[in-house]
Amino acid sequence: MKPRSIALKLSIPVLLGLVFLVALLLVIVPNQQQRILTQNLNSELESIAAALVISVQFAIEQEDLGLLGQVNGFMQNNREVSVAGIYLLEESGEQLVAEFPANVGLEQHLRSGSDDYLLVRLPFKAGGISGRVLVGSERQKLQANIWRVQLPLYIAFACLALVFGWIFINLNRGVVSPLLRSATIANRLGAGNLDVDIPIDSDNREVSSLTTALVELRDNLVAANSAHDALLRDLENQVASRTSELNQTLGELNESFNRLNVVLGAANALVWTFDRINDVFHFNGATEDLSNIGLDDNSNVTVEQILDKVDPSERARLVEKFSSYLLEGAELDEQVQLEVSNGNYRWFHLTGVPIQQDANREELALGSMIDMDDRIRQEQRIWEMAHSDELTGTGNRTRFTMAFDEAIQTGSSGTLMLADINDFKLINDTKGHVVGDRVLIAFAETLTRHLPAQATVARLGGDEFGVVTEPELTQADLETLFQSLKADLGGRADFGLEVPVSISLGAAHFPLHGQDLESVMHCADVAMYHAKQSKLGGSASSVFYPGMDAERLTRSALRTRIDRALNNSDLEIWYQPVWNDDSAHFRRCEALLRWPGESISIQEVIDAAEESELILRLGEFVVDEVCSFLASLEPHQADLAVSINISPVQFHYQNLEDLIKSTCERYKLDPSRLMIEITERTTIENAELAGKVLSALKQLGLDLALDDFGTGYSSLSTLHELEIDWIKIDRRFVQDINTNRNSYQIVNALMRMAQALDIEVIAEGVETDQEHATLRSLGVKVMQGYYHARPMERRQLLEFLKA
User: Quick check: bond before 577 cis, omega within 30?
Assistant: First the structure.
């Protein structure tokens, strides 16, 4: 239905309202008012008539009929009464005894115009006389009263009609017309005419807001139209660009297909399809090697022909994989060996992807076959390199671990052997690494030659070799193997060694002696250690048995006690003062670990701790205790220095620089008040690491001392390169200095060497006056031993220094 205009919607209720007002003014209100006034006048006439009856009754009872003459006066005082009369009832009929107005001729008057009056009649009876009274009012008076009442109402209705008209005119001019104009403008904007002029009506706030919104709408439409045009142009450009790219890509794709054909030929590859109805292959792109096995272009090759070319050891696996691929849609990704000539196999990478079924090719499968022989053999060579020792050609630790894990997984029993060359370090040091490498290669070749073919031989590090073989070797087998190794290596004269090469071999069985590599290797290592203890200068072998592990168990129990002692603070640090003849004072002392209440030697404690991380905890404990002690000294004792012994294991595995630096910072201690003592063994095992660690400690300000000097393999170059500040002459030379000329000469030579290198010397183990005197004569000024002071606890040291 077509919507109506606002003017029409407003005019209908206004017209209806005017019609209602006219009806109300001309019909309803006048009739209602006339009825009400008539009722009021009738009530008033009845009241007047009732009063007149009362007056007449009173006059009759007073027998004063002259009062009836007073009716005229009574009626003159009532403006609403036009006529009145009193009638008495007699035998001859009613007799008019009084009338109003006087002498009006009431009877004649009423007969001629009774409809012009509103009459009220009331009977009365008094003193035996009865009659009635009549009171009437002219209807013209009633109409005059009605007009006086209706005139103001007509005026009010006229004013109300004017107000309605004024409202309608203003609504039409102020609302309807602007809305119609705005609607027209909106229609033009909707039609796309954005150039329309929109005047803003400033006289009407609401209309002004509407027209302002239309202006904003027009501006937004203009902006949106511009943006749309720009977007359209951009889309057209993108479509053009994308079309160009697609054309270019299509060209490149065609070129790629051409290159793919070239690559397939260069890569010795082909694409195959398999007809599952006829069980035949169709090949495309076959190369020379593929042609040699009958895979020409588009040739129909049966499954049997393919299987005849497959390595017999791989046929069953390939049939299973290909069947699963065809029947279940499983992925086909296999490496197979195909015979390309008589007994000559090459590796191929076989892949397959099922084609989605459709009406034309519902029984086909698709795949590729690439000649991967060179790559796979290269990967095998890389694998061999990653799992073999470069020098000896045997396996490495990784291959050794894999062989053991594979043997354990199969559930079979076997033998694990560890073997090394006795005194190999001495061979390297005296004959050089070239000879040492020749010995290692010969040892590896000998092991491989005398072991079963399925055995795995691996170089685990240095001169240590490991062997994993299954099934388990008997005692007789092991003895035969050992004697063969001993004879072959001992009979070699091409190494240029003064003594024959000897070996130590330890064996353990799995799962008898363990089911994990660590456990079985430990047992074999215990057996090898046992063999070294009984080698008597030659080769020896040993097979592990449970009692052989007693020492290991003892060490384990000792480590548990050491751990408990560290946790319970049962260990203590004692101090042995060092005497200086020049100053005649004790200005230095050595920190010594003590375990009160225990009979075990501290060296045993250290040896056991070095087998685990306990040695690192012991090192932290000693450094912390010494720094705490030095920080607690009085200011006048601030020149006292303490030396700390560092074990080789601690030296190699603990960050000494961070440990000492952080501890000194915690106690606000100058690191120069500490001296580090290391043994010659520490510097020899890894000279490069020793140089780095000692250089870092020197940077902190610490002095460095070489302990037990003269008993190891130190050289002058070692002393120079490591920037050693002190050497400590071993107590064995000091104790024999007065009875053994060699000891005397060694100490004398050490002093001259130290003076030449500007290195300080401390003599250890000075216990007698004669030793002290002899050392003084050789120029030794700093001494340590029972002759000067015994080791003492912290409190005793403070009292000793005061004395």
Answer: no
